Amino acid sequence: MEKILEVNDLHVTFSTYGGTVKAVRGVNFHLNKGETLAIVGESGCGKSVASNAIMRLIPDPPGKISGGSILFNGRDLTKLSDKEMRRIRGVDISMIFQDPMTALNPTLTIGSQLMEGLRQHHKISSDHAKKKALEMMDLVGIPNPEERLKQYPHQFSGGMRQRIVIAMALICEPELLIADEPTTALDVTIQAQILELFEKIQAGTGVSIILITHDLGVVAKIADRIAVMYAGKIIEVGTKREIFYEQEHPYTKGLLKSVPRLDLKGEKLTPIDGTPPDLFSPPQGCPFTARCPMAMEVCDKVYPFSSELSDTHHVDCWLQDERAKQLLAEAAAK
Ligand code: SF4
Ligand code: MG
Fold it and tell me: I need a labelling partner for 234 at 20 to 30 A (CA). Which of 51, 86, 251, 289 fits?
């Protein structure tokens, strides 16, 4: 499969008066053309920071991409000038955020905002831009597009506004769409509609999607593969089936146990005890050690190697590593 994006050993830090926060600590992942990769984890795990880094939207200072590379169609985005990056943003890579209102200008009609996005990047006539805007409104399922182009954001419901934001993100036909908690602000019925819309758009345009979310229900619906982040690291990655049914990392197991499941009514949810480590001085070893029911002596000393359970399934946990088993056996023999 052809890769559209390859992130290698990405590090992002933020300087504060209290010290340096290591928000993303050596993250590796890739995205194949036309697929949806979900990056999941609790708030503060670094998933939004990692996706903002791809867009080069880390405010510098205080933030900084302090290491690694981000290859988009083979070009390292970390090496591009701000001007080159502006040309990529919104055209080749688009981003959708949680709150549609932050992406919309309340003083401009929907039509002018859609058309402006397009005309900023392409030299086209206003007739052509309008035609394209109408097509996009239709694609995202907004009825009476001709009428609605003349209206302002406050005249739309939350769900309709998010559809407009999606239309704006797609109007330049990007190859990569990054959606950061795109349905979190919406009620459940609208959420489901928006997720269906993502699927429909992907089937129609072949756009590759990175979906950032803390909501495993969203992931179950539309992800092809899932990367689980914890304390600035991807601790497990696999296909949707591997993560939901064959997950091996104790944190992933805990995360899945803390999610309500529609098919198991009445089953009690078990939240994971404890809190993630302080990212001012993250632990040397496995960052989950303090919360992990399976933790061994080696865990808090050395970060686990990545074990390859299949071509697509990788996990960073000593339980999967023969070398740790050997250490344990040696310790038991003493
Ligand atoms: Fe638990 Fe150790 Fe695995 Fe970390 S490496 S998840 S502490 S068993
Ligand atoms: Mg976030």
Answer: 86
With a 6 A CB cut-off, is 289 part of the ligand 1 pocket?
Answer: yes
- Verify whether ligand 1 is closer than 6 Å to residue 294 (CB atom): yes
- 115 CB under 6 A from ligand 1? no
Rounded Cα–Cα distance for residues 109 and 148 (Å): 9
Residue nearest to atom 5 of ligand 1 (CA): 317
Query: Does the C-beta of 247 come closer than 6 Å to ligand 1?
Result: no
290 CA to centre of ligand 1 in angstroms: 9
Q: Which atom of ligand 1 is nearest to the CA of 292?
A: 1
Assembly ipTM: 0.96
Tokens for 282, please give them: 């993250």
List, as one string, the DSSP characters of 38-105.
EEE-STTSSHHHHHHHHTT---TTTEEEEEEEEEETTEEGGGS-HHHHHHHBTTTEEEE-S-HHHHS-
Q: Is 230 in the pocket of ligand 1 (CB under 6 A)?
A: no
Counting from 1 in the atom list of ligand 1, the atom nearest the Cα of 320 is 3
pLDDT per residue of the chain (334 residues) written in tens, 0 to 9: 899 999 999 999 999 998 999 999 999 999 999 999 999 999 899 999 999 999 999 998 999 999 999 999 999 999 999 999 999 998 999 999 887 777 899 999 999 999 988 888 888 898 999 999 999 999 899 999 999 999 999 999 989 999 999 999 999 999 999 999 998 888 888 888 889 999 999 999 999 999 999 888 889 889 999 999 999 999 999 999 999 999 999 999 999 988 766 555 566 677 888 899 999 999 999 999 999 999 998 999 999 999 999 999 999 999 998 877 777 677 677 7
